[in-house]
Amino acid sequence: MPITPIRSLPPTPKRAHYDAIIVGARCAGASTALLLARAGLKVLSIDRRPYGSDTLSTHALMRPAVLQLSRWGVFEALLEAGTPIVEATTFHYGDEEITIPLNAGPDLPGLIAPRRTVLDRMLVDAARKAGAEVLHDIPVGDLFADTRGRVRGVEIRGAGRAALRVSADIVVGADGIGSLVAKCCDAQLLRSGAVSAAHVYGYAPVDPGAGYHWYFRDGIAGSLIPTNDGLACIVASVPTKLFDQRFRLGHARARTEVLEALSPALAEQASRAPKDARLQAFRGVPGYIRQAYGPGWALVGDAGFFRDPITSHGISDAVRDAASLAHAVLDGSEAAFAAWQQERDLFANQVLDTTDAIAGFDWTLADIGERHRRFSAVMKAEVQTLAGQPMPDRHASPTMGRPTFRAPANQDEPQAPAGVSNPGASNHYRNRMGARP
Fold it and tell me: How many angstroms separate the CA atoms of 271 and 288, rounded?
C-alpha cells in the first residue's frame, strides 16, 4: 500500500489581532514592518512567495535608498553578503562617455545593487529581529471591513485549511503593481503616466570594481549594473511598441541586437554569460500614482506608486515611502496620514515626470543629458529631506503614549471584537468585495 506523503500546513499567525498587518514582505513591506516593529508595534507581514525568492528587478540603489539602509543598519549586512560597492557612474551618450565619481560620506560610502534574493531577505531578517512576525508562502485572499466600510483585517486562504481571519488596526498593501489591497479598497487612481518601456536583462561575469554604466542611443537604452556573486545585470531597454515588434520571436537575439547597437563592448560583456542563462523580461506598464490611504488601510511601494524602471528608482521610492508611512502610522491621526500622502505625492509626481521624460524615448543625444540632470536634482532634494527626518518612534507622538494603538481615520469606530479570527464570529464584519461571512 503506497504511503501518502505528509504535507505540513503553512504557518499560522500567532495572534488574532495586530497593530498592523502588511500584505507583502519585499522592499516596501519588509521595510515598513521593520520600522513599525522597532517602534514597538505588534506587526504581521504576509507574503505569498517563498522567503528569499527572486523577483523582477534591475537592482540598482540610488542615494536615497542607500542613505535609508545605512541609517537602519542594513547596509553593512548587505556588504558582508558580498554586495559590491559602486564608486562611479558612467553615462554613455552615443560615443561620448561622462564618468561621475561618487562623493562618499559617512552615511553614503557608495552605491550598491544587491540581488533581490539578498536584499529582501536581509530586510525580512531585520524586521524579524525587531519583533515583527513575517510569514511566507501564504496568500491573502481578501480583506474584511465593518459595516461602515473601515478595513479591519485580512482573510488568509491556504490549501488544507479553512479561511482564517486576522484583524488589525491598519492593513498596509505592499503587494506590488497588481495590489489586492488597492483593488479591495477601491484605491483611486490619482495620476497615470503617459509612456512605458520594456526591459530585458540577464547576468554575466564582471570584473571587480565596475561601476554603473548607462547607455543611450536614439530610440534604445541599456545598462550594466554590478551585483552579487561577481555578476552584472545587463539590461536592454526599448519602447514597449518596439519590444512588441522585435522581441516576439525571441528575447535573446533581439536583446543582443540592441546591446550591439548601443556598444559592442557591452554586447561582448553580455556574451560572457553561460549559454543556458535565462533572461528576464518586463514588457512595461505606464507609471501611476494611487490614493495612499483610506479608512483602516494604506499603500506603499509599487502598490501606491510605480514609475518605469529605466531610472532605477523603484527601491528608493519603496524605502522612502515606508519610512514616511511609519511616521504616519505611529502618529495615528488623519492629519498625519494626509501629510504623508502630500509628501509622497510631491516626490512621486517629480519622479514620474522626470522618469517619463527618459522612458518616452522622445529625446535626442543632444538633450538626454539635461533630462538626467533634472532627475538628479529630484534625488538631491530627496536626500536632503531624508537626512533631516528622524527615525520613526512610537513615543515621539503624544497620541501613542497609551497602550492601545489608535488607527487612522474613523477613529471613533469600535475595535474588532474578540474572536475575529474565526470566520463566523460576528456578522458585524463584511468582506471588502461585498460578500458576507
Answer: 35
* Residues β-bridged to residue 235: 201, 223
Under a CB-based contact definition with an 8 Å cutoff, are residues 173 and 180 in contact?
yes
DSSP designation for 399: G
Which residues lie closer than 8 Å to 269 by C-beta, 6 or more apart? 204, 206, 224, 232, 234
- Write down the residue that cell numbers 513599525 correspond to: 36
- Write down the pTM of the prediction: 0.89
Distance of alpha carbon 217 from alpha carbon 259, whole angstroms: 10
Average pLDDT of 397-415?
A: 39
Asked whether residue 307 carries a pLDDT value surpassing 60, the answer given is yes
- The owner of cell 489591497 is 181
Q: Which of 150, 175, 160, 143 is nearest to 45 (CA)?
A: 175
β-pair partners for 90: 99, 213
First to last CA, the chain: 41
| 402 pLDDT above the threshold of 80 | no
Q: Whole-angstrom Cα distance, residue 147 to residue 326? A: 27
Residues 6+ apart with CB under 8 A from 17: 153, 166, 167, 168, 416, 420
Residue of 437 and 103 predicted with greater confidence: 103
**Grid cell at residue 211:** 561601476
Cell numbers that stand for 133 in this block? 512576525
Main-chain phi, psi angles of 352, to 5 degrees: -65, -45
Mind listing the pLDDT tens digit for each residue in 417-427? 333 334 333 33
Cα–Cα nearest to 392, from 9, 36, 7, 5? 36
Question: In 10 A of CB 55, how many CB atoms?
Answer: 12
Average pLDDT over every residue of 290-317: 97
Q: Note the pLDDT tens digit of each residue in 261-281.
A: 999 999 999 999 999 999 999
CA trace torsion 268, 202, 310, 237 (10° rounding): 60
Measured CA to CA, the distance from residue 412 to residue 295 in angstroms comes to 11
Task: Please state, for a pLDDT cut of 70, what percent of the chain lies above it.
Answer: 87
Residue type, 160: G
Residue 414 has pLDDT above 60, yes or no: no
